[in-house]
Amino acid sequence: MTFLELLICVTIAVAGLTLLQYEARWLRKLGMLFLFGTTVLGLTFAFQHIALALAISLLMWVVYPLSEIILVLRRLRVPRVRTLRDAKPPLDDTGTLSGLNADMTSLGFSKVDDCELTPELHHQYYRLFIHDELPIHSLIGWVTSEDFGFHFTSFYSEDTSGHLWMTWDYPLTWGLKTPPGVSLYRADHAETVDDLLQAHLDFLELNERLSSTLVRSDVTREAARSRLEAILRQQLEYNVELGILAPVLSSAGAPSSSASQSTGKPESQNGEAVPATSPLSSPAATSGQPEPTDFRYSWRGTFYVAAQVLRDLVRL
């Protein structure tokens, strides 16, 4: 590689890194393309073979990350029963949470609860809101672990048939399938909370779900928390039914169990007892063996998520 070729690569890389600093999503995506192009161009200059350079670049940018994702997903455990409990707001050195809270207030939303999900895969904190006039609920999600952290905002409404309409700006690939009773719109173009709310209103209007066809629920922390728990439970049941998630088996081949597991009967989204044929009730449980306390991604689910990640990479 000559000095001029090195200078070209450095210039493109610096341009890409500069674009990543902007808030506009399309500029950040362009920055990623610049960095990928720098890799391809640099390897082409080094090997004098563009096909080999492209193959190595794809290996570095796509194959290796996907293999890491597959390994992480196979180790991941999803608790069978998850509940929300009282929580204090997370440390907010950058003022992001307070800024989002101020945006919600300015849009007519009132805070009803601060809670966290337990047992936790990662620390998942939620601040729940409800609009003062419109039949719209909202939440701010704050997810943190030792290796990463991110936040997202969601608006959701329920119609008279019980169907849930949700709009959010979740920044990562969503690793579960959406149940039939939920319509999920990922508005990744929304730059502000105001934009996201407008996207939700447009989503409702497009599907002819006006305020008169939506249900306004009780404005209590218990009702808001129960609603979110029902959404999470419904999603878990659906993905177990599809085979995306599977019970974690012990070394003896039976689903793993824990003496600390609750002995209360699980409830459906409507608060009714889940029958023995529920997707969360394993064959082992119906035959008298302990029910699983955890689920994991099956191979089908693992490859499904990997394909979703690849799709998002292609879409950029």
- What is the makeup of the main sheet? 8 strands, mixed
* Shape field: globular
Rg over alpha carbons: 23 Å
Indicate the low-confidence ranges by residue numbers: 257-278, 281-287
Mean pLDDT: 83
Q: State the order of secondary-structure elements, H for helix, E for strand.
A: HHHEEHEEEEEEHEHEHEH
> What proportion strand?
15-25%
Number of E-state strands:
11
Instruction: Give helix % range.
Output: 40-55%
**N-end to C-end Cα span:** 30 Å
Helix tally? Answer: 8
Structural class: alpha+beta
Topology of this structure?
Elements: H1 3-19, H2 25-47, H3 50-75, E1 78-79, E2 83-86, H4 96-106, E3 109-118, E4 123-131, E5 137-144, E6 149-159, E7 164-168, E8 182-186, H5 193-206, E9 214-215, H6 221-242, E10 245-247, H7 283-286, E11 294-297, H8 299-315
Give an overview in words.
- There is one protein chain.
- This protein has helices at residues 3-19, 25-47, 50-75, 96-106, 193-206, 221-242, 283-286, 299-315; strands spanning 78-79, 83-86, 109-118, 123-131, 137-144, 149-159, 164-168, 182-186, 214-215, 245-247, 294-297.
- It is an alpha+beta fold and 316 residues long.
- Strands 2, 3, 4, 5, 6, 7, 8 and 9 form an eight-stranded mixed sheet that branches.
- Strand 6 and strand 7 form a beta hairpin.
- Helix 1 packs antiparallel against helix 2.
- The radius of gyration is 23 Å and the shape is globular.
- 21% of the residues are buried.
The gist of it:
The protein is α+β, with helices and mostly antiparallel strands and 316 residues long. It has eight helices and eleven strands. The protein has helices spanning 3-19, 25-47, 50-75, 96-106, 193-206, 221-242, 283-286, 299-315, and strands spanning 78-79, 83-86, 109-118, 123-131, 137-144, 149-159, 164-168, 182-186, 214-215, 245-247, 294-297.
